[in-house]
Design a protein that fits this description.
Two-component system, OmpR family, response regulator; alpha/beta; four-stranded antiparallel beta sheet; Arc Repressor Mutant, subunit A; 8 helices; two-component regulatory system; globular; 228 residues; 2 domains; Rossmann fold
Length: 228
């Protein structure tokens, strides 16, 4: 795997031998790695270290991985979270994913598979690290700040670019108006949340999305882009 310099990974597990194994392997791949052995330290470390990826064990004493995940998302942490579980149970996966986890792996797992999952999450959630990424019919090039749809470049304002990029990268996930405002307009935005509707309308016009099948509205919840 071609590692990009500066990618940070936080490991959270109460089993020392797993932490040591993953630390050695990931550092040898060129990642910056920090670790925590319990939930409380994990939340604090995530705030200080600001990782791109968090590999988080579900079964831990005290605050378990699901609660750690919930707190991280509540705090606005945008790291991609890959949950680890020793139980091959659907309920564990559902709890983790519905709390905000992006992926899961069942112990024991191969290191090669973990690297592949890390690469996939980075490309999906941090495409700017790679310069250019293709997601379904969309192409996002952060170097040019350009988005293409079906091979055609869209004429977008800076805010339209940031909004469409967010929706495409988070495809399949409902983004509420408040979350969009926090990310695209920043926390200091003091205007009305109907500004989101104005920009969504503009994006739909540029995408010729009259039927709202590209950018979907989920009444009372927010907006979602679904990719084939």
């Amino acid at each position: 795997m071609n590692t990009i310099k500066g990618i940070k990974i936080l490991l959270v597990d109460d089993e020392p031998h797993i932490l040591q194994f993953l630390e050695l392997g990931l550092r040898s791949e060129g990642f910056e790695v920090e670790s925590a052995s319990d939930g409380i330290n994990a939340v604090q470390m995530a705030d200080l270290f600001n990782p791109h990826i968090i590999i988080l064990d579900i079964m831990m004493p005290g605050i378990d991985g699901v609660e750690v995940c919930r707190q991280l998302k509540q705090n606005g942490n945008d790291a991609a979270i890959i949950m680890l579980t020793a139980k091959d149970e659907v309920s564990d996966r559902i709890r983790g994913l519905t709390t905000g986890a992006d992926d899961y792996m069942i112990k024991p797992f191969s290191f090669e598979e973990l690297l592949a999952r890390i690469q996939a999450r980075l490309r999906n959630q941090f495409p700017n690290l790679f310069g250019e990424i293709t997601l379904g019919p969309f192409g996002i090039d952060d170097r040019k700040r350009e988005i293409t749809y079906l091979g055609q470049a869209l004429t977008l304002s800076p805010t339209e670019y940031d909004l469409l990029k967010l929706l495409v990268i988070k495809h399949g996930t409902v983004m509420s108006k408040s979350k969009i405002l926090n990310i695209v307009w920043d926390y200091d935005f003091g205007g009305e949340d109907n500004i989101v509707e104005v920009y969504i309308r503009s994006l739909r016009e540029k995408l010729r999305d009259k039927e709202h099948v590209i950018i979907r509205t989920l009444r009372g919840a927010g907006y979602r882009v679904d990719l084939p």
